[in-house]
Give the backbone structure.
Amino acid sequence: MSWGLLIAAGIVEIAWSQSIEPTDNFTRPLPTLLCLVLAAAAVYLLSRAMNTLPVGTAYAVFTGIGAVGAITLGIVVDRDPVTVGRVAALSMIVGGVILARITASDAQ
């Protein structure tokens, strides 16, 4: 259950990262409200996952999912450059998230 909450938190964080730019420096009320709601939802889900997962593991996985999602959306949607370095970085982040999951205690 905690890992499911953590994955959900990461997905919401991806949505949150994409909701920042439309706020236009938090000058547009509705996009700003959406941005704040997504941020609160991501942190809430993360806090629920941390009830049974170690804080360090949960936070590292949470930010890893968010980073991979944000970079991937940047490449696909915004046509951000794809470089060997970026692909290597993404690969290491994904590998780290997978390693954190498979080495976690079965009690969690």
